[in-house]
Design brief:
This protein has about 500 residues and is α+β, with helices and mostly antiparallel strands. The chain has 3 domains: about 130 residues, no CATH class; about 150 residues, EIF_2_alpha (Alpha-Beta Plaits, 2-Layer Sandwich), CATH 3.30.70.1130; about 120 residues, no CATH class. Helix content is about 65%, strand content about 10%. It has 14 helices and 6 strands. Strand 2 and strand 3 form a beta hairpin. Helix 3 runs antiparallel to helix 13, helix 7 runs antiparallel to helix 12 and helix 9 runs antiparallel to helix 12. The N terminus and C terminus are likely disordered.
């Protein structure tokens, strides 16, 4: 099978593809060139890096953050201790590294804060802390170890003064000013409360409201009792009236006759005769007969209802009537008492409703007085504490304690070695790239161009026309790559 122009072109391209072995071979052939270029680039750049990078000394100071609930700081920044530990530590670190602390340090030392000096401090100063640790580490880098140590100590002192002034209040706009404002607000609230009570004729709102409620409950209980007593008295009077209808108003008191008197006289006379005569004496016997006859007369009932009669008011009727009148009088009195209590009940309800309508305004004024008084009390304590803190030396009895102050470091740190190594890597990379490009160009130039075969027509070719249908059992033609001539030269040099 003859090759087509496309096959020859593909073979030419395949001979120019490079793999890792070809790159290594090219680099080996250009090793002198690469070494020369590396030295030309490395020497000036390494010298410039070595001369420009001077050794620096790093001085550090360690600060301890104490979490104390009784201390105003750093809990004061958290509005009642709501900040978490990491937030407090981050706040303290940001405050230590703030521009204001550096400016105050420069003003305290030199009397002026130059922007260039601030920039230098910002570039050399750093604050770090270990995770879950209460230590802040402040460091400063400078070419002079004494300057580095003094700068760190000055920044830490300025930070301690500034944080106390910031968190506890300074001379202007601090705790004392807020305390004066809180006391004015408390007096204003108390004046408003007193004016409210005076306008509504109230001495003690809570006492008067409780008294009005108690009086209302007492009147309600008394009225209900009076109504119940009146109803009971009326019912009892009606029952007595019904009973009196069946009882006569007058009755016979007694019937007066002389039969019993005569019998008694005969018995007395018999006793006198028995004292003088024998029992069978005629006078005694005669009196005895009269007594017996009179007793038979009485026993036969012929003396009952005879004699003088006397009638009068029935005492039972009279007693029941008196009880009825008493119950009716009691019912009338309880009804009058209920009517009076009803009027008092309306007045008491009116007073309670009036006080309840005023209760919301009273509660608002009371809350304002309580809140502003509490704020004034708290600020008074903070003002006294802030005054004591401002008079203390930096780092004394505070939430931030200086564990170790910065001292001039002995050992310097420099990036010259790292810079020289980086320059070496850069110079070697550039030289290697230039060597590979140079070797590839030379290889392509020296390689002979492939001979292009002449095309043949279908009629001149004796080969049968290929079957357009692909055959799975046909062997796959593999293309062998011809190595570049540079490999031959490398093999010759071995």
């Amino acid at each position: 099978m003859t090759s087509t122009p496309s096959d020859s072109t593909a073979d030419g391209r395949a001979r120019r593809e490079l793999d890792l072995v070809d790159l290594v071979a090219i680099a080996w052939t250009q090793r002198l060139f690469i070494i020369l270029i590396t030295l030309l680039i490395f020497i000036p750049l390494a010298a410039a890096a070595y001369l420009s990078l001077t050794p620096t000394y790093t001085a550090g100071s360690r600060l301890l953050v104490i979490m104390d609930d009784e201390d105003l700081t750093p809990g004061a920044a958290g509005a009642g201790g709501e900040f978490m530990f990491d937030q407090i530590m981050q706040s303290e670190a940001d405050l230590l590294a703030s521009e204001e602390v550096k400016r105050r340090m420069l003003v305290a030392l030199t009397g002026d804060a130059d922007p260039e000096q601030l920039k230098t401090l910002g570039e050399g100063f750093a604050v770090s802390r270990a995770p879950n640790a209460s230590f802040l580490i402040a460091t400063f880098k400078d070419a002079d170890p004494v300057v580095a140590a003094n700068t760190v100590n000055a920044i830490v002192d300025a930070y301690l003064r500034y944080r106390v002034e910031l968190l506890t209040g300074g001379n202007e706009g601090g705790v004392q000013a807020r305390l004066d404002a809180a006391e004015r607000d408390a007096r204003t609230a108390q004046t408003a409360l007193r004016a409210f009570l005076a306008d509504n004729d109230i001495t003690d709102f809570e006492t008067e409201l409780n008294s009005a409620l108690g009086r209302l409950a007492d009147i309600q209980g008394r009225k209900l009792g009076a109504d119940a007593d009146a109803a009971q008295a009326r019912a009892l009077a009606q029952a007595l009236q019904d009973r009196l209808q069946n009882i006569p108003q007058t009755i016979e008191l007694y019937v007066e006759n002389s039969v019993t008197g005569q019998l008694l006289d005969l018995q007395v006379r018999q006793a006198e005769l028995m004292a003088r005569y024998q029992p069978d004496a005629p006078p005694v016997v005669a009196v005895q007969r009269e007594i017996e006859a009179l007793e038979r007369f009485v026993e036969e009932g012929r003396a009952n209802g005879q004699g003088q009669r006397r009638t009068g008011v029935n005492p039972i009727w009279q007693e029941l009537e008196s009880s009825r009148l008493q119950q009716e009088s009691q019912a009338a009195g309880q009804m009058r008492l209920a009517a009076s209590l009803n009027a008092q009940l309306r007045d008491a309800r009116t007073e309670v409703d009036r006080l309840r309508d005023l209760q919301s305004e009273y509660d608002r004024l009371t809350r304002a007085v309580a809140a502003r008084s509490a704020a004034a009390d708290q600020l008074s304590v903070q003002a006294a504490d802030a005054l004591a803190r401002r008079e203390m030396p930096p780092g004394g009895a505070d939430a931030i304690r200086i564990v170790s102050r910065a001292t001039p470091p002995v050992q310097a740190s420099s990036k010259r070695k790292l810079a020289v190594m980086a320059v070496g890597v850069l110079a070697g990379g550039i030289a290697l790239l230039l060597g590979l490009i140079r070797g590839y160009v030379i290889t392509v130039r020296d390689e002979p161009a492939p001979r292009r075969p002449e095309p043949q027509t279908r009629a001149e070719s004796s080969e049968p026309e290929p079957d357009p249908t692909p055959r799975h059992d046909a062997p796959v033609r593999t293309r062998q790559r011809t190595p570049l001539p540079v490999l031959a030269r490398v093999s010759d040099t071995r």
